[in-house]
Structures are given as C-alpha cells and as structure tokens.
Design a protein that fits this description.
Elements: H1 4-24, H2 64-67, E1 87-88, H3 89-99, H4 101-104, H5 133-136, H6 141-150, H7 161-174, E2 183-184, H8 186-190
Antiparallel strand pairs: 1-2
Length: 218
C-alpha cells in the first residue's frame, strides 16, 4: 500500500497533466495558450501578422527645383552654365575693395593672405613662372566659376551673379585682357581669349580614357 506522500505526488502529477491538456487543445472547450501578441503557441499553422512598412519613411523626394541652388557648375571652355547677369569693370573695382582687398591686396597685387593675381603672362614658358588668372587659366569662365564657389573666403557663395561678373571683369582688366570699360555677361565672358588657352595638353594616359562600366561589370 503506497505511502501518504506517494499518493499526494501522483495526484499532483495527474492534476498538472489535466490542466495542460485543457490549455493545449483549441476548440475543445479550453483556453489555447497564446503569446503576448496573440499568436497561438505550440502550433505551426498560418497566423495573422502585423504588416511592416516597405521603407523607413526618412527624407523626401528631391525635385529639379530643389537642385537649382546646388547646380552651379560651369563648363569652362564655352561658358555653358553661366547664369544670367552682368557686371562692369568699375563695379568690380568697388566690390573688390570691400570683399577682396583685405586678402589679395590693392589692385590684386598681393596681400596678407595671397600673392599677386596680376601679371605673369608668358612666364609659363620660362623657369620663373608667375601664377595668376591671366597667366594660367585657359578659359575666362574659370575665374567666374572659382570666385562664385569659393570667395570671399569667409563667406563663399555670398556674392550675387552680377557681383561675380563685375569682380571677374575687374581682374581680367587688371591683367590687360579686357578694356577698362568692359561689361561682361555670359556671352562676352565666354568670348574672352586667354593667353594660355593652348598651354594645356589632353591627358591621354590609358586610365584617363577608360570607359566607365555601367552594366554587367566584372
């Protein structure tokens, strides 16, 4: 005859099995066990899931109008991309005195930060080259493009298109490349012939002429 302790243990195990069986049988009058999100436990059948968004939802579409302020590159050989506007040598002289002279000096002859931007034309064929816009740039629109992007050094891209045309005209005039009464715009600036126009050669090394792979690349 089993002891009292053994009978109690057997009875406890039977009760636990009965409770588990009731909780495991769906549709048999018991409560099916579920996860916190309501997914039945202990089954492998299909169950409803919460749909997830197909993207994180960050940012917004970019339109062409959004890119206008960033699209300021100029194709320097022919001036494609130069903006509307105009500026005279005299206007450029006044703007230069306020915005540029502190670093580049009076009449662009060199100042506290930078050396001269005048003269040196023809010096690239000698052993004493003088690097200035007039002596080095092959195309005049390069001056406009650089000034608009980078100057003044403490607040680049703060000059209007008219102001950049004017400062460019002033610098070209100081180098004797346009008359002192010149007024430059997109057409006339692109037409200025620079002394070093033919002083550059095309880089014909194989890696410079490689064709970019866009599909089925290896």
């Amino acid at each position: 005859m089993p002891s009292v302790r053994l009978r109690v243990t057997l009875a406890s195990l039977a009760g636990a099995a009965l409770v588990w069986g009731c909780a495991s049988v769906a549709g048999a009058g018991g409560m099916a066990a579920k996860s916190a999100s309501g997914i039945p436990l202990g089954t492998s059948g299909p169950h409803a899931v919460q749909a997830l968004p197909d993207r994180p939802g960050l940012g917004r579409p970019v339109s062409e109008s959004d890119l206008v302020a960033w699209n300021i590159d100029v194709r320097t050989p022919d001036g494609q991309g130069l903006p509307a506007g105009r500026g005279s040598v005299e206007e450029g002289r006044q703007i230069y005195a306020i915005q540029c002279a502190a670093c580049h000096g009076d009449e662009a002859k060199g100042g506290a930060m930078f050396g001269t931007m005048v003269g040196g034309i023809g010096s690239f064929t000698t052993d004493k080259r003088i690097l200035t816009p007039g002596s080095m740039y092959p195309y005049a629109p390069i001056a406009f493009d650089y000034i608009r992007r980078a100057m003044p050094m403490d607040k680049p891209q703060s000059l209007s298109a008219n102001e950049v045309y004017a400062v460019t005209a002033y610098l070209l005039s100081l180098n004797g490349l346009v008359p002192s009464n010149a007024v430059l715009d997109a057409t006339s600036l692109a037409g200025v012939q620079m002394p070093n126009r033919n002083g550059f050669t095309i880089d014909d090394r194989p890696d410079a002429a490689a064709v970019r792979c866009m599909t089925n690349c290896k």
